[in-house]
Amino acid sequence: MMEETIIMKSIKATNSSYNYDYNRKVDKSKIPVCNILGVNIASVNVDWVVKYLKKNVEILSGDYVCVSNVHTTVTSYEDSEYRNIQNGGIMALPDGGPLSSIGRKRGYHSMARITGPSLMGEIFNISAKNGYRHYFYGSTEETLEKLRGNLQEKYPEMQIVGMYSPPFRTITLEEDKAIIKNINDTNPDFIWIGLGAPKQEKWMSMHQGKVKGLMFGVGAGFDYYAGNIRRAPLWMQKINMEWFYRLMQDPKRLFVRYLKTNTKFLWLIAIGK
Description:
Layout: E1 33-36, E2 39-42, H1 46-56, E3 64-68, H2 70-78, H3 80-88, E4 91-94, H4 97-105, H5 116-130, E5 133-138, H6 141-154, E6 159-164, H7 173-185, E7 190-194, H8 199-206, E8 214-217, H9 221-226, H10 234-238, H11 242-249, H12 251-270
Parallel strand pairs: 3-4, 3-8, 5-6, 5-7, 7-8
Antiparallel strand pairs: 1-2
Helix pairs in contact: 2-3, 2-12, 11-12
């Protein structure tokens, strides 16, 4: 962890944040949520999110968005600290298909799956028109170079104001201050965090209110747009089988995770948790 003392508190009010010092400028209680295993998953769809962001992006600066799936939800159920972080941002979006399916069964009929790469694409598509500025934090230098090249080719008028690949070691307080300054000097609207869960959510919560721009934890989103991995065919996405497609691409890393968390998720839902 970074060598910095962060005063934190548990989530007690709907509109509270996990960072004790952060004062949110929008009313979070107006965002509909479905509580799944203790995580308040936003019961929305991608059109709703894009409209909400276009309206509020400036006053959301300093806040963060989690893109939640079965793995992060089960991890949150087991770890109260991480659950508070998931609930501490402006919203936790339903990346996992099972999350949106459960939401619809519970009466949130407009709730739909929102993946990190899909949301990124929606925002990238409207960035030139709205003058949005983007900063990318995470992954490797090689992936960031490929990411920049691909984005500039597909979205030539998109403003990429900064990229940073953090070292794979503990970052000192002085280094962290320099990173914050580097981000803030570029004045981004969106800060995309690609560190993987749970590291990216912890990073966002620690920097809530310290950086200029709205943070999104998008995990493998960097790799998708860099061309390192491919998304599942649309038919697999529609039947909630994209996890299997990812498993086939990276079985060594994902097999144990999926076996453990997917099985536990199904059990917990079955017994009414």
